[in-house]
Amino acid sequence: MKFNITLLPGDGIGPEVVGEAVRVLDVIASKFGHIFNYNERLMGGCSIDKYGSSLTDETLADCKASDAVLLGAVGGPKWDDPNAKDRPERGLLALRKGLGVFANLRPVKVHPALIDSSPLKPEKLKDVDILVVRELTGGLYFGQPKMREMKDGRERAVDTLEYYDYEICRVMELAFNLARGRKKKVTSVDKANVLESSRLWRQLATQVGRDNPDVELEHMLVDTAAMKLITGPAWMDVIVTENMFGDILTDEASVLAGSMGMLPSASLSEAGVGLSHDTRMGLYEPIHGSAPDIAGKGIANPIGTILSCALLLRYSLKLEAEAMSIENAVGETITAGARTADIGGKLTTRQMTDEIIKHI
Ligand code: IPM
Ligand code: MG
Fold first, then answer.
1. pLDDT for the residue 279
2. Residues of the chain with pLDDT under 50
């Protein structure tokens, strides 16, 4: 089969890890007899430098026209001026919104051979297999008003935590569907003791829970969830939560896996999650950032991006066997002892990828 994939390598280590992940995709293409056409575009700081905009209309249109988008990372000290008109992160948010990818799936699994790379006690990490479903196009990141002003001689800033019922219901339904294929447990994370938006969240979670009686629903306050992720992560299955809580909890959860460099993500639209059938749009990216401190050195861990390719194959291209062959290859490579610097080894980005390719 033939597919069009837009590549947005971005900034920092983004181009290094995306370049290696494409080599893996090419091996999959030749092994399984597919054709992947890549369309590479600028997004983030590199796009500000070239076009004066972190995400151009043309790039967004190209992404929409493709079967899936693979992204590296955006941002870096060069574009960190708080007074700048545009920022790399704005491009990323505009891309998520523009593609309508409302659900961000962040699986957190601990490879047994990497248990010692985590600062947590080994017994806590046994059997950890969590899927965080983060709402991605609403909440504090996008709510209006969002502004700065002078009021009564004081400088004032406002962000708004806003959710519509449909935004909560669609991500909640997806979480239940995903839980059905796993341990059948959803932990809905909110701050319903304080926030009105969280009270709506909890009400709708309860409602969706009633429609899905085969899946166990538990409500948890976000502060408790932050603690439970460290004290009892093996008890969690699917966690579903609003945008900003999900941002924070997934960085915390990445510590369980030994390194942020290990973790992939998939951001899906209604089409991508099977609610409609006209396209299968998805945006795939590692959860790590652009890591300016190691950019250009060729030592970044490519696994988060390579596993993101597996999710791309699974969710957007519907190629399950191909997805599994990448995931198995990564698992076997780690078992065999291959390690980049972040997980205590010496392999370069390229050498790590070579090892993974040998296992495909
Ligand atoms: C993430 C990142 C982004 C976010 C930043 C880069 C805007 O932290 O994907 O988790 O906050 O969503
Ligand atoms: Mg984040």
1. 43
2. 275-279
CB-CB contact of 234 with 94 (8 Å): no
Domain ranges of the chain: 1-100+264-360, 119-257
Confidence (pLDDT) at 273: 56
E-state strands within the chain: 2-10, 35-40, 68-73, 103-109, 129-135, 143-151, 154-160, 185-190, 216-221, 238-241, 264-268, 282-286
Query: So what's the pLDDT on residue 57?
Result: 98
Residue 277: per-residue pLDDT? 42
Q: Which residues are catalytically annotated?
A: 141, 191, 223, 247, 251
According to CATH, the superfamily of the domain at 1-100+264-360 is: Isopropylmalate Dehydrogenase (3.40.718.10)
Strand 129-135 relative to strand 103-109, pairing:
antiparallel
Nearest ligand to the CA atom of 248:
2
pTM higher than 0.70 for the full model?
yes
Q: Do 1-100+264-360 and 119-257 agree at the fold level?
A: yes
320 Cα to the center of ligand 1, angstroms: 27
CA of 92, closest atom in ligand 1: 7
pLDDT of residue 276: 44
Whether the bond between 145 and the residue before it is cis, its omega within 30 degrees of 0, is: yes
d(CA 68, CA 283): 6
**pLDDT recorded at residue 272:** 54
The topology under which CATH files domain 119-257 is Isopropylmalate Dehydrogenase (3.40.718)
CA 94 / ligand 2 centre spacing (Å):
16
